[in-house]
Please model this.
Amino acid sequence: MRIAQVPPLYEAVPPRLYGGTERVVAHLTDALVDLGHEVTLFASAEAKTKADLVVVRDQAIRLDPAPLKSDLAAHIAMLAEVRRRADEFDVIHFHTDMIHFPLFEDMAEKTLTTLHGRLDLKDLPGVYRRWPQFPLVSISDSQRAPLPFANWAGTVLHGMCAGIYEYHPKSEGYLAFLGRISPEKGPERAIAIAKRMGRRLKIAAKVDAADREYFHTVVEPLLDHPLVEFVGEIGDAEKSAFLGGADALLFPIAWPEPFGLVMIEAMACGTPVIAYQWGSVPEVIEEGVTGFIVDDEDEAVEALRRLPDLSRQAVRERFEIRFSAHAMARRYEDLYARLDEAARPPRLTLAQSA
Amino acid sequence: MRIAQVPPLYEAVPPRLYGGTERVVAHLTDALVDLGHEVTLFASAEAKTKADLVVVRDQAIRLDPAPLKSDLAAHIAMLAEVRRRADEFDVIHFHTDMIHFPLFEDMAEKTLTTLHGRLDLKDLPGVYRRWPQFPLVSISDSQRAPLPFANWAGTVLHGMCAGIYEYHPKSEGYLAFLGRISPEKGPERAIAIAKRMGRRLKIAAKVDAADREYFHTVVEPLLDHPLVEFVGEIGDAEKSAFLGGADALLFPIAWPEPFGLVMIEAMACGTPVIAYQWGSVPEVIEEGVTGFIVDDEDEAVEALRRLPDLSRQAVRERFEIRFSAHAMARRYEDLYARLDEAARPPRLTLAQSA
Model:
């Protein structure tokens, strides 16, 4: 099929450091090319891709040092270019929330829109009610809860290219926390759990400007402890070693996480996940196989005791089956085919036309 | 005429404190009603207007305490509602930058779009080149400089309802600075000018989160001086007294100000303006009548010496002629009529059809 991929323009595709949406689109795009599709990626110039690249901005917005820029104008200009070339594609796959709806109304049936963010925002129901013709994809079933009436075509769990994560058959005796430092990600809970068990904890985390006060008042005072090591922000190159060396990833969230990429990144390294039961967690973690799902600190401590029951090899295997980029691309392929089927005029058989 | 006014949804219409665009739209809307037009205002529920109000959000986005909301979704939903009712209007007047372009392509000829912000942003030329069919209004000629190729229908300088500002025939012996505390507004230059002349300076200003560091490091150390009084943020009710009591408003900007509402608010009170020559300033200030246009501190000091040459009554008169809401509404009326004329099928006379 001829497929267009349209990610947002905030980060490079794939991102240099953080940035979930652009990372998933990068892996999906390459996997679709590997499956034999003709894929076109609309992105900023830094993109690294196996697909045909259409450069729609000289650089990603967040990497661009220009002081005066317009997110909205950049995205609208990109979408106008996609529309100008729409005839070249069988399917146009958007990852841009709802901003493309007004421009693609007359061809909604050949679009697919994956929603990557949380959906419990006040202004969203009005928009998804007004444009019910756009088929939507959720990245977990739980993500859909605030918009049950929307035009859901399917759920496709994220996948990542297996090759960039190294499987670690043996861990090195520490627990890992990886993510933004923010109340919803729960770093202080990870620290409490590690201390109760007397286990080492390594924290690799970015501190956004918005979370700096929380970091200084809540988290920083807890870091001065012999069991806790704060390693700062890490890039893709260091992730495998950091996650693969851990006995387990702690994911003590307290918000409706739409997916949680770091869980599958840990699994790719063979590292099980101990996660709080919120959002996508029960759909991503297979209890007693790839990790444990817990409700509080006591249960997390109990889960840590049961860690030796899990096989790191089984964790990696489950990643490959469920969360490789190939697996994700296969699921999207099914959805694209269904769109294509629905768009084609029905073929009349002799019996029907008689 | 049947006219729709479509301001952004960030602030109330009119705003409770700051917010230029929503304030201008509020005054324009009422003045158009006074001129006998059938006006419909699309806005959040707090709006106070003489027009028919279509409520498109329960409250303005910045006043809304809900932690999870989407600016983009709120605006797109509003625009969809405007489009649903588009047949009810002869002219639809947008104040929403370019976000409505995709939704109103098929009726661009009956829309007018006033651009309220600075236009030297990196991503704008691409958008205004792609949608050349939308007639645009600049709020000063100088504002157009970065987009000379755009489809400019005219320049309409802002106006304000004369009734809400009280004319002060006598001032009270101080200089005034009113605006955001930010490097581009130049509060430190205002302080330097006042100190050189040994004149009292009152500063009424808002400090945004983004400008707090600049305030603490650059401005705050200068405030501890017997000539300088910092009165904080003031509302509409206090503005007349604050501006009307001043010998002059100092407007020592250093950026391409697209308009600068505070200049005409001062004039409405009879207070002349000493402004640095940037952006709209030469179009708003009449040199030697409503104030002085200067290039540096020396010239500002010289202008202060010449202040007694100016007549406060003449300043107020020039405001009424050039910057009342009525004057602004008349200018927009002309532009609406031209749109309407252009949209109507040409009438064939006998001579032409023969």
Q: What stands out?
A: The first helix of chain A runs from residue 20 to 34. The radius of gyration of chain A is 21 Å. The first strand of chain A starts at residue 2 and ends at 6.
